[in-house]
Amino acid sequence: GAGVSQSPSNKVTEKGKDVELRCDPISGHTALYWYRQSLGQGLEFLIYFQGNSAPDKSGLPSDRFSAERTGGSVSTLTIQRTQQEDSAVYLCASSPDGAGAVTQYFGPGTRLTVL
Amino acid sequence: AQKVTQAQTEISVVEKEDVTLDCVYETRDTTYYLFWYKQPPSGELVFLIRRNSFDEQNEISGRYSWNFQKSTSSFNFTITASQVVDSAVYFCALTGGIAGNTGKLIFGQGTTLQVKP
């Protein structure tokens, strides 16, 4: 079946602009995760959704970052007033359930470049 | 706090050599899960294996094998008879398994493996 998809694959924006990144999880997966991969920080957890709720937002780096999930499916990560340090690859993952026993499957990522 | 350490930043081998990627973890959870993911040049993280803390049995899958030792908090990954297609960044990751755990993964810094022909 189809895997996790993300769009756009690449996004170049100017400092101060808002961006939206989209994630389509594997059909039927109730858990959805956003991670960020940057040269200096490695792979970092951002936020976890179970259904449409986000019980763990502990990884969001600032209030410029927000995310939502609708219909228990598609999720959007929004970064407002982008800064150069936001440049990174944003990865989305989904799993059948939000528990450690269950494997997360990753999408191809969105490479964000803030000029 | 949970932590994963992959001390080897880069490894370079010649094709057909065996190579072991080290992973050491820290956690206070009694139930936890360990993972290895592969990130080829295309960028997508590919799941390789998941182990739970109660199962220390080593696992072999083709040319891949994993050695889990709770006594040393290590979960090492060996590729036998490496091939050029094995060139990638390999990540070890950890998550807790107790009630309330969200499943978020704590990743090591990754080991870049280069297999030369």
Characterize the structure shown.
The complex is a heterodimer of chains A (115) and B (117). Chain A is mostly beta strands. Chain A has no helices and eleven strands. Chain A is globular, with a radius of gyration of 13 Å. Chain A starts with a strand and ends with a strand. Chain B is an all-beta fold and 117 residues long. Helices cover 0% and strands 52% of the residues of chain B. In chain B, the strands form three sheets. In chain B, strands 2, 5, 6, 10, 11 and 12 form a six-stranded mixed β-sheet that branches. In chain B, strands 3-9-8-7 form a four-stranded antiparallel β-sheet, with no helix packed on it. In chain B, a hairpin with a 6-residue loop joins strand 5 and strand 6 (46-52). Chain B is globular and about 45 Å long. The model of chain B has no long low-confidence stretch (mean pLDDT 92).
Structure, briefly:
The complex is a heterodimer of chains A (115) and B (117). With 115 residues, chain A is an all-beta fold.
Features:
heterodimer; A: 115 residues; mainly beta; four-stranded antiparallel sheet; B: 117 residues; six-stranded mixed sheet; globular
Percent in strands of chain A:
over 45%
Secondary-structure element order of chain A, as H and E?
A: EEEEEEEEEEE
Q: What is the residue-mean pLDDT of chain A, rounded to a whole number?
A: 93
Give the DSSP E fraction of chain B (strand runs of 2 or more residues): over 45%
**Uncertain ranges of chain B:** none
Estimate the helix proportion of chain A, in percent. Answer: under 10%
